[in-house]
Amino acid sequence: MAETLRLAVAVIGNVASVSLYAAPIVTFKRVIRKKSTEEFSCIPYTIGLLNCLLFTWYGLPIVSNKWENFPLVTVNGVGIVLELAYVLIYFWYSSSKGKVKVAMIAIPILLVFCAIALASAFAFPDHSHRKQLVGSVGLGVSIAMYASPLVVMKKVIQTKSVEFMPLPLSLCSFLASVLWLTYGLLIRDIFVAGPSVIGTPLGILQLVLHCKYWKRKVVIEEPNKVDLPKLVSLENLDLEKGGLEKGNLEKNVTTS
Protein backbone atom coordinates (compact mmCIF):
# COMPACT_ATOMS: atom_id res chain seq x y z
CA MET A 1 0.00 0.00 0.00
CA ALA A 2 2.78 2.42 0.94
CA GLU A 3 4.67 1.57 -2.25
CA THR A 4 1.55 2.15 -4.35
CA LEU A 5 1.00 5.54 -2.69
CA ARG A 6 4.60 6.58 -3.34
CA LEU A 7 4.31 5.53 -6.97
CA ALA A 8 1.02 7.41 -7.42
CA VAL A 9 2.43 10.60 -5.89
CA ALA A 10 5.58 10.25 -8.02
CA VAL A 11 3.56 9.89 -11.23
CA ILE A 12 1.33 12.87 -10.41
CA GLY A 13 4.42 14.83 -9.33
CA ASN A 14 6.03 14.04 -12.69
CA VAL A 15 2.98 15.32 -14.55
CA ALA A 16 2.87 18.52 -12.47
CA SER A 17 6.60 19.11 -12.87
CA VAL A 18 6.54 18.55 -16.64
CA SER A 19 3.64 21.00 -16.77
CA LEU A 20 5.76 23.42 -14.73
CA TYR A 21 8.67 23.09 -17.14
CA ALA A 22 6.33 23.41 -20.14
CA ALA A 23 4.38 26.41 -18.79
CA PRO A 24 6.89 29.02 -20.11
CA ILE A 25 6.16 27.86 -23.68
CA VAL A 26 3.40 30.50 -23.72
CA THR A 27 5.90 33.14 -22.64
CA PHE A 28 8.45 32.16 -25.28
CA LYS A 29 5.84 32.05 -28.04
CA ARG A 30 5.31 35.72 -27.19
CA VAL A 31 9.08 36.34 -27.19
CA ILE A 32 9.41 34.74 -30.64
CA ARG A 33 6.37 36.62 -31.98
CA LYS A 34 7.60 40.00 -30.75
CA LYS A 35 11.29 39.17 -31.34
CA SER A 36 12.04 40.65 -27.92
CA THR A 37 12.53 39.35 -24.38
CA GLU A 38 10.77 42.50 -23.07
CA GLU A 39 10.81 42.57 -19.25
CA PHE A 40 11.11 38.80 -18.80
CA SER A 41 14.07 37.57 -16.76
CA CYS A 42 16.44 34.76 -17.79
CA ILE A 43 17.35 33.93 -14.18
CA PRO A 44 14.51 31.42 -13.48
CA TYR A 45 15.37 29.41 -16.61
CA THR A 46 19.13 29.24 -16.05
CA ILE A 47 18.69 28.22 -12.41
CA GLY A 48 16.01 25.75 -13.52
CA LEU A 49 18.48 24.23 -15.98
CA LEU A 50 21.07 23.68 -13.25
CA ASN A 51 18.40 22.21 -10.97
CA CYS A 52 17.34 19.70 -13.64
CA LEU A 53 20.94 18.73 -14.40
CA LEU A 54 21.73 18.09 -10.73
CA PHE A 55 18.62 16.07 -9.93
CA THR A 56 18.92 14.01 -13.11
CA TRP A 57 22.46 13.18 -11.99
CA TYR A 58 21.19 12.54 -8.44
CA GLY A 59 18.66 9.99 -9.70
CA LEU A 60 21.10 8.02 -11.86
CA PRO A 61 22.67 4.80 -10.47
CA ILE A 62 26.07 6.51 -10.31
CA VAL A 63 24.83 8.56 -7.35
CA SER A 64 21.70 6.81 -6.09
CA ASN A 65 21.47 3.13 -5.22
CA LYS A 66 20.41 1.47 -8.48
CA TRP A 67 17.15 3.07 -9.72
CA GLU A 68 15.62 4.04 -6.38
CA ASN A 69 15.14 7.62 -7.59
CA PHE A 70 14.09 6.86 -11.16
CA PRO A 71 11.14 9.35 -11.08
CA LEU A 72 13.69 12.16 -10.66
CA VAL A 73 15.50 11.08 -13.82
CA THR A 74 12.40 11.05 -16.01
CA VAL A 75 10.99 14.42 -15.01
CA ASN A 76 14.29 16.28 -14.82
CA GLY A 77 15.46 14.78 -18.11
CA VAL A 78 12.48 16.44 -19.79
CA GLY A 79 13.24 19.58 -17.81
CA ILE A 80 16.80 19.74 -19.18
CA VAL A 81 15.54 19.76 -22.77
CA LEU A 82 12.91 22.45 -22.12
CA GLU A 83 15.00 24.72 -19.89
CA LEU A 84 17.91 24.59 -22.34
CA ALA A 85 15.54 25.53 -25.17
CA TYR A 86 14.25 28.51 -23.16
CA VAL A 87 17.76 29.75 -22.40
CA LEU A 88 18.78 29.48 -26.07
CA ILE A 89 15.63 31.31 -27.28
CA TYR A 90 16.14 34.00 -24.65
CA PHE A 91 19.76 34.40 -25.77
CA TRP A 92 18.78 34.63 -29.43
CA TYR A 93 16.22 37.39 -28.95
CA SER A 94 18.11 39.37 -26.30
CA SER A 95 19.87 42.65 -26.91
CA SER A 96 23.67 42.65 -27.04
CA LYS A 97 23.77 43.54 -23.36
CA GLY A 98 21.23 40.81 -22.62
CA LYS A 99 23.30 38.20 -24.46
CA VAL A 100 26.31 39.03 -22.30
CA LYS A 101 24.17 38.68 -19.18
CA VAL A 102 22.85 35.27 -20.26
CA ALA A 103 26.36 34.03 -21.04
CA MET A 104 27.72 35.28 -17.71
CA ILE A 105 25.03 33.27 -15.89
CA ALA A 106 24.79 30.12 -18.06
CA ILE A 107 28.49 29.35 -18.49
CA PRO A 108 29.33 29.30 -14.74
CA ILE A 109 26.22 27.16 -14.15
CA LEU A 110 27.43 24.52 -16.63
CA LEU A 111 30.92 24.61 -15.12
CA VAL A 112 29.50 24.12 -11.61
CA PHE A 113 27.50 21.09 -12.75
CA CYS A 114 30.53 19.53 -14.46
CA ALA A 115 32.62 20.03 -11.32
CA ILE A 116 29.95 18.46 -9.08
CA ALA A 117 29.45 15.52 -11.46
CA LEU A 118 33.18 14.78 -11.69
CA ALA A 119 33.70 15.11 -7.94
CA SER A 120 30.78 12.84 -7.09
CA ALA A 121 31.81 10.20 -9.63
CA PHE A 122 35.53 9.98 -8.78
CA ALA A 123 36.17 11.57 -5.37
CA PHE A 124 33.64 9.55 -3.34
CA PRO A 125 33.67 5.75 -3.17
CA ASP A 126 30.06 5.03 -2.09
CA HIS A 127 26.50 6.08 -2.91
CA SER A 128 25.84 7.60 0.50
CA HIS A 129 28.55 10.26 0.22
CA ARG A 130 27.74 10.93 -3.43
CA LYS A 131 24.09 11.54 -2.57
CA GLN A 132 25.09 13.90 0.21
CA LEU A 133 27.28 15.96 -2.13
CA VAL A 134 24.92 16.14 -5.11
CA GLY A 135 21.81 16.35 -2.91
CA SER A 136 23.20 19.22 -0.81
CA VAL A 137 24.10 21.29 -3.85
CA GLY A 138 20.82 20.37 -5.52
CA LEU A 139 18.92 21.41 -2.39
CA GLY A 140 20.52 24.86 -2.44
CA VAL A 141 19.90 25.29 -6.18
CA SER A 142 16.28 24.16 -5.87
CA ILE A 143 15.64 26.68 -3.11
CA ALA A 144 17.18 29.34 -5.36
CA MET A 145 14.98 28.17 -8.25
CA TYR A 146 11.82 28.43 -6.17
CA ALA A 147 12.98 31.80 -4.80
CA SER A 148 13.94 33.24 -8.21
CA PRO A 149 10.35 34.39 -8.96
CA LEU A 150 10.82 36.85 -6.07
CA VAL A 151 12.43 39.15 -8.65
CA VAL A 152 9.31 38.94 -10.79
CA MET A 153 7.00 39.24 -7.77
CA LYS A 154 8.75 42.47 -6.82
CA LYS A 155 8.01 43.81 -10.30
CA VAL A 156 4.38 42.67 -10.01
CA ILE A 157 3.98 44.64 -6.78
CA GLN A 158 5.69 47.71 -8.27
CA THR A 159 3.65 47.73 -11.50
CA LYS A 160 0.47 46.26 -9.98
CA SER A 161 0.32 43.93 -13.00
CA VAL A 162 0.90 40.17 -13.40
CA GLU A 163 1.61 40.50 -17.13
CA PHE A 164 5.16 39.20 -16.71
CA MET A 165 4.30 36.46 -14.19
CA PRO A 166 2.20 33.95 -16.19
CA LEU A 167 -0.53 32.18 -14.21
CA PRO A 168 0.18 28.68 -15.64
CA LEU A 169 3.77 28.94 -14.38
CA SER A 170 2.68 30.03 -10.90
CA LEU A 171 -0.03 27.37 -10.63
CA CYS A 172 2.20 24.52 -11.81
CA SER A 173 4.97 25.68 -9.47
CA PHE A 174 2.59 25.46 -6.51
CA LEU A 175 1.23 22.01 -7.47
CA ALA A 176 4.69 20.56 -8.15
CA SER A 177 5.97 21.87 -4.80
CA VAL A 178 3.13 20.26 -2.86
CA LEU A 179 3.48 16.91 -4.64
CA TRP A 180 7.27 16.65 -4.34
CA LEU A 181 7.08 17.66 -0.70
CA THR A 182 4.66 14.78 -0.17
CA TYR A 183 6.83 12.35 -2.15
CA GLY A 184 10.01 13.40 -0.31
CA LEU A 185 8.34 12.83 3.04
CA LEU A 186 7.07 9.41 1.94
CA ILE A 187 10.53 8.21 0.90
CA ARG A 188 12.18 10.08 3.80
CA ASP A 189 14.61 11.96 1.53
CA ILE A 190 15.37 15.50 2.75
CA PHE A 191 17.05 16.38 -0.55
CA VAL A 192 13.79 15.72 -2.43
CA ALA A 193 11.40 17.23 0.14
CA GLY A 194 13.57 20.16 1.27
CA PRO A 195 13.16 22.53 -1.70
CA SER A 196 9.37 22.27 -1.55
CA VAL A 197 9.36 23.55 2.02
CA ILE A 198 10.34 26.89 0.45
CA GLY A 199 8.56 26.40 -2.87
CA THR A 200 5.09 25.76 -1.44
CA PRO A 201 4.65 29.09 0.44
CA LEU A 202 6.23 31.00 -2.45
CA GLY A 203 3.78 29.33 -4.84
CA ILE A 204 0.92 30.39 -2.58
CA LEU A 205 2.25 33.97 -2.57
CA GLN A 206 2.33 34.05 -6.39
CA LEU A 207 -1.28 32.89 -6.55
CA VAL A 208 -2.28 35.57 -4.03
CA LEU A 209 -0.65 38.22 -6.24
CA HIS A 210 -2.55 36.87 -9.25
CA CYS A 211 -5.82 37.16 -7.35
CA LYS A 212 -4.99 40.75 -6.41
CA TYR A 213 -3.63 42.10 -9.70
CA TRP A 214 -5.01 39.81 -12.43
CA LYS A 215 -7.21 42.51 -14.01
CA ARG A 216 -4.47 45.10 -14.29
CA LYS A 217 -2.01 45.54 -17.14
CA VAL A 218 0.94 47.81 -17.70
CA VAL A 219 -0.35 50.69 -19.86
CA ILE A 220 2.07 52.81 -21.86
CA GLU A 221 0.52 56.10 -22.89
CA GLU A 222 1.16 57.23 -26.43
CA PRO A 223 1.18 60.83 -27.66
CA ASN A 224 -2.11 62.14 -29.03
CA LYS A 225 -1.82 61.75 -32.77
CA VAL A 226 -4.94 63.85 -33.49
CA ASP A 227 -3.76 67.13 -32.04
CA LEU A 228 -0.62 67.38 -34.16
CA PRO A 229 -2.35 67.76 -37.58
CA LYS A 230 -4.65 70.36 -36.06
CA LEU A 231 -1.71 72.36 -34.81
CA VAL A 232 0.11 72.04 -38.14
CA SER A 233 -2.94 73.14 -40.12
CA LEU A 234 -3.38 76.19 -37.89
CA GLU A 235 0.27 77.08 -38.23
CA ASN A 236 -0.07 76.83 -42.04
CA LEU A 237 -3.13 79.05 -41.86
CA ASP A 238 -1.14 81.58 -39.86
CA LEU A 239 1.63 81.56 -42.44
CA GLU A 240 -0.72 81.90 -45.39
CA LYS A 241 -2.97 84.65 -44.00
CA GLY A 242 -0.50 86.32 -41.71
CA GLY A 243 -3.37 87.72 -39.68
CA LEU A 244 -3.71 85.26 -36.81
CA GLU A 245 -2.12 86.30 -33.57
CA LYS A 246 -0.50 83.92 -31.15
CA GLY A 247 -3.39 84.25 -28.72
CA ASN A 248 -5.90 83.30 -31.41
CA LEU A 249 -3.82 80.30 -32.41
CA GLU A 250 -3.73 79.01 -28.84
CA LYS A 251 -7.47 79.60 -28.56
CA ASN A 252 -8.12 77.62 -31.75
CA VAL A 253 -5.93 74.72 -30.51
CA THR A 254 -7.87 74.70 -27.24
CA THR A 255 -11.29 74.76 -28.82
CA SER A 256 -10.50 72.31 -31.68
Structure, described:
The chain is mainly alpha-helical and 256 residues long. It has two domains: 2-213; 222-256, no CATH class. It has eleven helices and no strands. Helix 2 (25-34) runs parallel beside helix 4. Residues 218-256 have low confidence and may be disordered.
Give the gist of this structure.
This protein has 256 residues and is mainly α. It has 11 helices and no strands. It folds into 2 domains: 2-213; 222-256, no CATH class.
**How many strands, what sense, and barrel or not for the largest sheet?**
none
Helix run count: 11
Care to count the β-strands?
0
How helical, in percent, are the residues?
over 70%
The secondary-structure element order is HHHHHHHHHHH
**Assembly form of the protein:** single chain
Span from first to last CA? 80 Å
Q: SS-based structural class?
A: mainly alpha
The poorly predicted ranges are 218-256
Rg is 26 Å
Overall average pLDDT: 78
**Shape, please?**
globular
Strand content: under 5%
